[in-house]
Task: inverse folding
């Protein structure tokens, strides 16, 4: 899609989003029609990518859950769209769909979606937009970051402080030792323990 057409499409996306948030019922219906097929395809792709067995009813339930989530609490999720780094509404919705499906898999267990595996030819996903690879890379990155941050939040306070200082702010071991009033050896011990604990937490939350 040419750049001018892409810009116009994104302006229209945001206008439709604004009308939905304002409570325009016709806009909400148009929103569902516009993104319904994409949501179905994204749900399918995510389940297939995780080798999860599912039935057409599972797809329907997850599809409906996505839109219920988007419009719930006076469009609370829709209001969270910021469009940072050139992210389109469609790409943002895909990220929400992937996260919702993965959470559903974790909550129910991979064997609970136990219908027949629905074999969908790969060509059916060819129209996910020309930036397909970038889109899925973005979703995977967002999901990895979410899992990592969730793991860090579950660490002990001292381990969490170390992770923030060392990996977020870039402090050296010596600088952290001075900041936390500990010996360098003690900080290395904290580092080893924090990384080991974080790896356990991340592995537990990853499918």
Result:
């Amino acid at each position: 899609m040419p750049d001018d057409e892409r810009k116009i499409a994104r302006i229209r996306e945001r206008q439709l989003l604004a009308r939905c948030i304002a409570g325009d019922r016709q806009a909400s219906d148009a929103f569902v029609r516009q993104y319904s097929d994409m949501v179905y395809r994204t749900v399918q792709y995510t389940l297939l990518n995780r080798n999860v067995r599912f039935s057409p009813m599972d797809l329907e339930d997850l599809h409906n859950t996505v839109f219920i989530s988007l419009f719930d609490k006076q469009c609370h999720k829709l209001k969270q769209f910021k469009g940072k780094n050139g992210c389109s509404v469609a790409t943002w919705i895909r990220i929400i769909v992937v996260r919702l499906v993965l959470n559903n898999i974790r909550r129910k267990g991979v064997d609970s979606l136990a219908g027949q595996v629905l074999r969908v030819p790969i060509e059916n996903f060819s129209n996910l937009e020309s930036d397909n690879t970038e889109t899925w890379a973005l979703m995977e990155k967002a999901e990895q970051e979410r899992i990592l941050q969730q793991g860090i939040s579950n660490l002990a306070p001292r381990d969490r402080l170390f992770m923030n200082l060392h990996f977020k702010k870039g402090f050296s071991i010596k600088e952290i030792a001075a900041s936390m009033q500990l010996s360098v050896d003690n900080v290395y011990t904290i580092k080893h323990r924090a990384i080991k604990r974080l790896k356990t937490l991340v592995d537990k939350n990853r499918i």
